[in-house]
Amino acid sequence: MEHIDITRLQHLDAEHHLHPFNDNAALAKKGTRILVKGEGAYVWDAEGHKLLDAFAGLWCVNLGYGRRELGEAASRQMTQLAYYNSFFQCTVEPTIQLAVKLAELTPADLNHAFFTNSGSEANDTILRLVRHFWAVQDQPQKNIFIGRRNGYHGTTMAGASLGGMAGMHKQGGLPIPDIHHIDPPFWFADGGDLSPDEYGIVAARRLEQKILELGPDRVAAFIGEPIMGAIGVYIPPMTYWKEIERICRQYDVLLVADEVICGFGRTGEWFGSQYFGITPDVMTLAKGITSGYIPLGAAMFNDRVAGVLKHQGGELAHGCTYSGHPVCTAVALENIRILQEEGIVDRARTEIAPYLAERWAELGEHRLVGEARIAGMVGALELVPRKGERRFFDERGHVGVLCRDTALKNGLILRATYDSMLLSPPLIWTREQVDELFEKAWKSLDETAATL
Ligand code: PMP
């Protein structure tokens, strides 16, 4: 590999690059890690360390690293037609084909795609278009969105407002008006003496209480991640989403599934909604849609919503220069082709996820782990001060960071949110990589525990 002057690059980075979701002063002192290469399940940093990426980049590299076909699809499209817009009554073939493919893959009658560059923009899109959907049906007052505290829906004004991260709301005057939040379903911390299934119903009924408090004629939609990712992989009990769906139907509140993490096989199903057996009216997508090889997001609308937008909505006053960018949609098509033709999602569900669940449960035996939760190819280990008690450390987040840094030293990338160690590997993992995860994670848990 070509020689890289790491110290100099770190210095330049500290001088000129503001990192998202970082304390930039602290990072500048420490120095950023520079990644230089990826192949299959692994990435390499500039110092030559080979790391098992158990987080798929940022929940996105579902196909694993280094698939040449995606680069070739991008190159072909760039050479043939690098760009054209979808504004001037035009479009391009890969964008049409991707819209068709998404209509086919997503559940029920989610048949209509609007393309964006990111998950955040997809959530901005649905906020505007769903409000417009109600407004053109003479219900402009039906404009409230209900999300969840600690939910994550992106970083734009609407995305961060729909999300319920207090730290994000503090910066920039959020949330924007007419967005409300209910408490998330997190049995570990909040379930008390209820069984998970009983608790799922209780947690879902918070939505009903909130709708009744605000008035059903004011509530446009409920938005949620099927599995809440960023806050710590909160996997709701199976009863939760069914009850949420029932409530949405009863009060004619649109159900929006933010599938930015859960989509494209993360749970072993193509979409998290299928894992929980629900049919949303609207879905947002990003990340796994291209396996992170190129930026792309999408909002999917069902026939009812799209029908109103098309036939009653007039001109759609919404769009990005790169809505349906041909290079991005060509790469997405190639990504989905490989996921389908190589049976990667099915294989994850039937072969790898069950083995991963087995070994993840073994990690759950470690004295530092209070809960090992997993759904398909996404999970978390909840680190606790006293095994057997569903209680957090007094100073939340310290042990999680320690464990994350120890894992990194041991050649394993796990993310930490507070003291939850998060797992979201590429779907192409084999049993060998699951075993490697187990060895490295157990060692890291041991070493972390030893320092406490
Ligand atoms: N929704 C969810 C559930 C996410 O996890 C994320 C990103 N982590 C987003 C939306 C925002 O996507 P992006 O970062 O592509 O804007």
UniProtKB/TrEMBL annotation:
Its cofactor is pyridoxal 5'-phosphate. CDD domains: OAT_like. Keywords: Aminotransferase, Pyridoxal phosphate, Transferase. The keyword Ion transport does not apply. It comes from the Bacteria. The keyword Transferase applies. PROSITE patterns: AA_TRANSFER_CLASS_3. One of its GO terms (molecular function) is transaminase activity. Belongs to the class-III pyridoxal-phosphate-dependent aminotransferase family. This is Aspartate aminotransferase family protein.
